[in-house]
Design a protein that fits this description.
Layout: E1 3-8, H1 17-25, E2 29-32, H2 36-41, E3 47-53, H3 64-74, E4 79-84, H4 92-98, E5 100-105, H5 110-130, H6 141-154
Parallel strand pairs: 1-2, 1-3, 3-4, 4-5
Helix pairs in contact: 1-5
Length: 157
């Protein structure tokens, strides 16, 4: 089943090119929507590995904790990534305890997105191993190339 990263940007109108580029390196597609029911309906055809969501993704009156509750209920296996502006303060301890996986600042920066999606990929790998899966997610192409180059350098090639 294809795997996807969902971006719920709320009122943020950035193009989010960094997310598209990095997700593709991991073999994941990106779906941009603020419609939670559409995301849930699409789970019949794909697996959502992560949801990046802005403060107002589920409406202006929905708190971060309530967003996490709704997203966790609707997509229990997805990693929840809070996206926020530089001036927005958060209580990371409460949000993490509530089920948030990670947080990033808008505008999304490629190096930060790559690190975050690397954490998601590693989490997916560990979950597959814990379930006793014989096939774990393969190394993402970009990381595979870097690992191959490092191995070749160590071997003196």
């Amino acid at each position: 089943m294809p795997e996807t990263v969902v971006l719920m940007p709320g009122s943020n109108r950035d193009t989010h090119r960094a997310l598209h580029a990095v997700a593709a390196d991991f073999g994941w597609t990106v779906d941009i929507t603020n419609d939670l029911s559409a995301i849930v309906a699409a789970q019949k055809f794909r697996t959502t590995v992560a949801v990046f969501f802005a403060q107002d993704a589920l409406g202006p009156d929905c708190s971060r904790i309530e967003q996490i509750r709704q997203l966790s209920r609707a997509l229990p296996k997805a990693r929840l990534v809070i996206c926020r502006g530089f001036s927005e303060s958060i209580d990371w301890t409460a949000l993490s305890d509530g089920g948030a996986f990670h947080e990033l600042w808008f505008p999304l920066q490629e190096n930060e997105v790559r690190l975050c999606l690397g954490f998601v990929w590693e989490s997916e790998k560990r979950m597959a191993t814990a379930r006793g899966a014989t096939a774990v997610p393969p190394l993402p192409p970009a990381r595979a190339r870097a690992s191959h180059a490092l191995s070749a350098a160590r071997a003196g090639r």
